[in-house]
Amino acid sequence: MERGGVWRVLAKLIEKNRIDLVVLGTRGRSGIPKLILGSVAEEVLRLAACPVLTIAPHVPEFKSGQTFRNILLATDYLAGSLNAVPYGFCFAQLFHAKVTFLHAIDATIVAGAVSREELQAQERERLKTLVPGDVAAEVEFQAEFGPATDVILAVAASKRADLIVMGAHATRAPAASTHLPWTVAHRVVCHAPCPVLTVREPRGSPNLSGT
Fold first, then answer.
1. Where are the domains of the chain?
2. For residues 163 and 73, what is the distance between their CA atoms, to the nearest angstrom?
3. Phi, psi (deg, nearest 5) at residue 93
4. Which CATH architecture has domain 6-199?
């Protein structure tokens, strides 16, 4: 029990106790075109230095003995996203889960001399180079065209993902600025059919052995 603004209290506890993971529920509101995170969840997602596991109200209850079987690991190759990679594979090894390693391709960058199929193949090969060498997990590499939010949610649904792991880019700008890169994570958290683990810029990597 602490007194004060929620984020101010959490920030102090995260630093003081060297917290590795924050777990919180979101307060998704319907009735408008885009669900909105509760203000506390929004602040934690943007500002927490450690990974944050968020669970929206519509996500099915996680029952005793349940495990993560299918993990969707999404990357845009930016710092927070790259830092999320070892976390995704750490969870995969701990739960013996299958990983779908995904990159959403911006259709506007397709050069005339390169076909969509060739670009997808190039991105799949690029994803392979990001897998830690000491990881033993079943991995499927996937590159799809479209807006990142739409691609991540569509693949999560098709793969029946139990967990989405992705980067969240630090910013103190207002959440209403939809052009900001962190809003992809914001919208995925709001609409995801499963828990979402968001990871910020590097502050050390997790131990892949799970110890």
1. 6-199
2. 8
3. -70, -40
4. 3-Layer(aba) Sandwich (3.40)
Let me know: does 180 contact 98? Beta carbons within 8 Å.
no
Could you list the beta-strand ranges (E) of the chain. 22-25, 52-55, 70-74, 98-105, 139-145, 163-167, 196-199
Secondary-structure breakdown of the chain: helix, strand, coil percentages, each rounded to the nearest 5: 35, 20, 45
Q: pLDDT tens for residues 69-94?
A: 999 999 999 888 999 999 999 999 99
Rg of the chain (C-alpha set): 17
User: What's the rounded Cα separation, in Å, for the pair 153 and 196?
Assistant: 11
Tokens 């960058």 label which residue?
109
Question: What is the reported pTM?
Answer: 0.84
